[in-house]
Every structure is written in structure tokens, then in C-alpha cells.
Design a protein that fits this description.
By secondary structure, the chain is of the alpha/beta class. Helices cover 48% and strands 15% of the residues. It contains eleven helices and nine strands. The chain has a six-stranded mixed beta sheet with strand order 1-2-3-4-6-9, with helices on both faces. The chain has a three-stranded mixed beta sheet with strand order 5-7-8. Pfam families: ECH_1 (PF00378).
Amino acid sequence: MTDDLIQREDAGGIATLTLNAPHSLNALSTAMIARLTAELDRLAADRATRVVILRGAGRAFCAGHDLKEMQAARAGADKGAAFFRQLFDACAAMMQRLPALPQPVIAQVHGIATAAGCQLAASCDMVVAAEDARFGVNGVNIGLFCSTPMVALTRKVPPAVAFEMLTTGEFLPAPRAREVGLVNRIAAPADLDTATRALAETLAAKLTAAVRIGKRSFYDQMGLPLDQAYALTGDRMTENMLWRDTEEGISAFLEKRAPDWA
């Protein structure tokens, strides 16, 4: 456990981070962003943790930015301009840490994931959602277009779906979010913890080094021209093939036995 805003539990190589501000539906205040950033930085250097689960306490996963904090910043001489830019920059830097982490990150979503909260879920590698969870980038409903959440969203769902969500402010129920690629798996609310943990345990059972090089390669090749993507991943696979544990894994498969990984 780190502090009141972020709670951490570790078991079986899986770190579970819980956003713990249920009174604000786990809003991404400046303090929450700073605490989560610090915890992600610790995880980046953590060799023992193989998988990360990110969840929210209380009734929701995350309701986005703290609107009360943002409105209070308008009292400044610049009407909050410097605060807003600093907030969005800090949030963007935190979001970018999620795909950059060596470990796979699973968002466990219940209740709502709205605006920057939807951005947070979309920035994770995978999402497991309760059947009654809802996802939205609904800032347009209060006159604030979700431009920064749009970055993560448009990298997960088809452009037409993202644009409709952004311009209508309407929510996607979990089954529909799964259909369009925002959610990987759905579960009954009572089974959400179990379903998320099962996926995390599946990932944790793989060769850690292989998963880590695979995650890095997955994001590095995205957006590259086809020939460059193949050149990059060919280099990574060659590196991977030369590992002792990979040689052992292939031998074990061919010999129909469990691998003896170091």
C-alpha cells in the first residue's frame, strides 16, 4: 500500500493498484495524477512484478478530471490557463507511462469510465469490464470537447465510433465496448475481480522476459511502415530466440514436458 489515494496489493507477481477517492468517483485530480505517476515509475523499475491490474474503489472506475478543482483554478489572474495546461500535460505524461511499462496492464472497470477515466482505461493494454459498466467521452455535454482522451480512444476503436462518442457524449455499454475493441472481456459484476485476476494469472504464468519484449515490440511497431515494422520485429524475434529460456521452452514443447525456466 502506498498512500490513501493509491492502494497497492502484491500477490503472485501481480500488483493491483486501486484508485482510492470514491467520494469523487476516483477523479483524476492533480494529486491523484501525481500519486499514480509515482507508482507507475516504481513499477517500471520493479523486476518482480509481472502484471499490473488498475481498478477503482467505490461505485466507479474513474469519472475523469476533477471538475471542482478545475473550476477553482479560474480564480487565478490568467483564469486558470497555466493550471489547465500543467494538468493536461501531467495527465498525458502519466497516460503514456501505461503502454511504456514493461508489464502488461489490465484495467478492471466497473460503474463508469468517463472522459479522462475512459482515456485511462483505453491507455491500458487490456480492459476487463463488468457487464453493466459504461464508457464515455462525454465532455461535450458540458461544453468541453474531450481532445486529450480522444488520443487514447482513437488508438483503440474505429474512427467513426470514436467520433460519434466524442460528439454525442453518449455512453457505450460494456457489451458494445467489447464489440468495437475497447474492452477485451466482460463479466458479471460479482465475478469481475475473479475474471480480471484469471486473465492476470494467465499472463503472469508466461515467460516474463518474453512478455516484456513482446509488449515493447507491440507498441514500437505500431504506426511504422510495413517494411520497417517487419525489420524491427525480426530483430526482436532473433534476440528472443537466442535466450536460454526460449531454447528451453521450445525443447520442452517438442519433448512434451513443462519448461524449466530459470
